[in-house]
Amino acid sequence: MRHPLLALLCSTTIAAAASAQTSTLPPLPAPIGVPRPGPVTDAPYAPQPILPGGVVVPLYPPGSSFLNARRVREAEVYNVSQTVPGRINSIVNIHNPSIEFHPVERYLNTGTTVILVAGGGHNTLNVGSEAADFVPFFYQYGVNTVILRNRLRRDGYSAETDAVYDAQQAIRVVRAYAKQWNLDPNRIGIIGFSAGAELSAPSALAFDEFDRKNAGASDPFAGVSARPDFVGIIYPGPTPFSVRNPTGPSTSWARNPSPPPIPRNAPPAFMATAGSGDRIHALWAMDYAYAMLDAGVPNVEIHVYGNGRHPGDSLSDGGRMNGGLSAANTRPMSTWPARFIDWLRDLGFLQKPGVETKAARDVAAFANQPH
User: Fold this and answer.
1) Parallel, antiparallel, or unpaired for β 98-102 and 144-149?
2) Distance between CA atoms of residues 151 and 117, nearest Å
3) What is the C-alpha to C-alpha distance for residues 5 and 43, in angstroms, rounded to an integer?
4) What is the C-alpha separation between 346 and 341, in angstroms, rounded?
5) How far is 253 from 242, CA to CA, in rounded Å?
6) Is 2 exposed, middle or buried (0-12, 13-18, 19+ CB in 10 A)?
7) How many CB atoms lie within 10 A of CB 66?
8) What is the average pLDDT score of the chain?
């Protein structure tokens, strides 16, 4: 056992050496390549990529009736990480909504594309943990990614209409550019997180209506379908199959007694949520799953994990949040992305592009059944 005095001398010597070394080190350079919002000009704001190499496409042409002409020139506002230089945690003040496309290498490319719709309670857009982090994740499976920047309730927009329109328009824009981007137009899906799932869920139901409303000769995407080929609904907010109980507390919701019609070609759906630790979001996920399963829609999968919390909730047990790709979380909830990949593979979305998927065959067979 080392003598206490010797230990004290050693620690003092080490501290002194470290101090001397630090004082002689050259200063560290500032981080470079940090993404910044675009400037304010007389033209509509030009959204900038939040990840290197992103191809940014505004959803609507200048002068579109979808845009707020008074605010479309305002710059987006980034909330950046204080510890990770260049990481954009969230964005607000989105008035010229857009998509940001990230391709995979040709030798990996399955032609499948996932449109990522981040959450944030319609108050902010959590593009870090629920969008940007998934770009390299899906890349390794040959899946192309698109980050959606949709309009927010906090900025004066309706989540139920404006933001949902942004998600539906994003599907059309990606499909319209499928050939230029080497994508399979029959493998374009959308995955929403929390408030983002409030956009992905209705996008899987009301695509025909959106297409009919936007079929005019002045629409550059007229004739391009807004139907997603698959949908992800991750720890969702209320879906079209959920309604607030008018006689109960604000957290009291019930299954919608007058649910919207389910199209015969409704896309396959994947849901994942924590259970008792995130009960209300689990119930909303189950409302959607129940409606799809009750209607007989094929290839519906739901994972309700026993433990976990909603992203942003405080954890009294000292655990970690399970939002996005939280691999540091040791709970099973953190494994849901692997289950999503299993589901994509099972439905044929990870095979070579141009080959009809199992999902497409099953949708066609179901749509052709007498009802």
Assistant:
1) antiparallel
2) 11
3) 71
4) 9
5) 7
6) exposed
7) 15
8) 90
- Among 227, 187, 221, 223, CA closest to 206: 227
Q: pTM above the 0.70 mark? A: yes
Asked if residues 232 and 190 have their Cβ atoms less than 8 Å apart, the reply is yes
CB within 8 A of 307, min separation 6: which ones? 274, 275, 276, 277, 319, 331, 332, 333
What Rg value do the Cα atoms of the chain yield, rounded?
23
Mean pLDDT of all residues in 305-331: 61
Q: Domain boundaries in the chain?
A: 37-367
- Tokens linked to 214: 């936007």
CA distance 225 to 207: 7
Structure-token pair, residue 154: 């906090």
Higher pLDDT, 24 or 317: 24
Strands (E), 105-199: 113-117, 144-149, 188-193
* Closest CA relative to residue 300, chosen from 201, 219, 212, 213: 201
Confidence at residue 30, expressed as pLDDT on a 0 to 100 scale:
92
Distance CA 205, CA 297 (A): 12
CATH superfamily of 37-367: Alpha/Beta hydrolase fold, catalytic domain (3.40.50.1820)
